[in-house]
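Our working data are protein records whose layout never changes between entries. Instead of coordinates, the fold is spelled out as a row of discrete tokens. Here is such a record, shown just as it appears in the course material:
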Amino acid sequence: MPKPRPITWPELLDFQSGIVGRRQAVRLGVSQTAVLRRAKSGTWQRLYRGTYATFTGVPPREARLWAALLRAGPGAVLSHETAAEVHELIDKPAAKIHITVPASHDPARRGPIRGVVIHRSRNVASEPLPPWQLPRTPIADTVLDLIGSAKTTDDAFAWLTRAIGRDLVYPAMLREALSARKRMRHRPWLLEALNDVTDGVMSPIELRYVRDVERAHGLPSGRRQARRELDSGVRYLDNFYEAFRLCVEIDGRLTHPPEQKWRDADRDSDNLFRDDVQTIRLGLRHVTSGRCVQAAKLAKLFIRRGWDGAGLRPCGPDCAVNKVLQAGDPPSDRLRVVRRQRGAHEGAVRLDRQVDVPRGHVANQERHPLAVNIADHRA
């Protein structure tokens, strides 16, 4: 292939939003004396040491980013929140400009750079781009950087689901980028989180429900983001338990606008009218401090709808699910649990189901499939 021609002075200024480094200027024929004279006269503005704006007035955002990159030196790329900004993963610029440089280079060794956070890495990932675009980390590496620097796993999962929800990255891309990293904070958690996202868990509060309510207590597993064609149109349900005609929706926002509440109500009604699918809505409080109580309530509901209770377990000694296991499902209009002692097995619980039927029919009584030994639970 032919060798690319050198970039001209007008092209350089156009590519870099009017920003130039002193070394770049000298290389293209502008002497250091001329650079200093223009900065002193006000024709140019000095933004950082050795970095100038070749215009007057307030520099736009892109010019600021170019200036920070030139100040950081060769091999520098935008990363973390700033790379997320140019990838359109976030909608508002962060207060600080984040830049990653090779570990062998420390542009801040003489002191911090105003408004810039320097990250150093042995393997700087840079997205292949033409010279007129801002150097940045690839989107998959950007997401991994943000996950690695997140303060909580909720924050980390929010970055993950936001990037995937905006179709900027796919789980396979993240797994590939992760495999290329020797060190990664939260690696085991992240691998599990990628599986959850692949299954359809799309927010931190949904993850809390799946892990802390459903899985932690051995409840039936729901289908995530289940597609349903209802009278009001195609809808996606957060957690759909088709065998039990039950839908669990997770509402992460504290308040909803009136139009959203009506849309949710219409969807819930359509589910009920179509095939008797009941919708339960849970919020942040239900899946955090109230997770065990909600798990116990859901367990009772699943049992009334035909679940055999296999796998139901408490997450700790004070878990509300213990009461479900010890007492059985409480009486209701359609289900009555009778506890009886049986001979040699002291403390065994026999759960008999007695179904209410219309007058004139014979009520069938059958052994309830959820039978537990109280002595075992007390041990």
User: Anything to note?
Assistant: The chain has three domains: 61-195, 204-304, 328-379.
